[in-house]
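Lest this sound abstract, we let one protein speak, letters for residues, whole numbers for local backbone shapes, and leave readers to judge:
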Amino acid sequence: MDTVSLILERNGGKVHSIEPEASVLEAAQRMNEAKIGSLVVLEGRSMKGIVTERDIMTRVVAQKRDPATTRVADVMTSEVITCPPDTPIHAARDIMRERRIRRLPVRAGDELIGVITIGDLNAIETQRLSELVDSLETYIHKT
């Protein structure tokens, strides 16, 4: 059974992060540069939260706050759901669906080792289905 560690191996496990005292403008610029939709909020090595595009839209833009003066700590999601690397992929998908989240930080003990996304899970599933189709086509053409 495949686990989220497979996704981290494929993606390299890089974690994009920002400090809680940084501005929302800086967070948006970092996300834009990296072409990602969230940043883990770290204070030292301690995870304090996650800031997402949705956080910025609902807590900054929609409330007409200035992103240059609004701190990440003021708009981040501080109750972050995480999973260990040995979490089965189907369980990670269930967590994301039930909690209505698109990003899931992965922790080994207290250490943050990566973030998986719903897109990562979709890519794995697409690959599996493609392999199944190939296998079935091979079987059909051999008979």
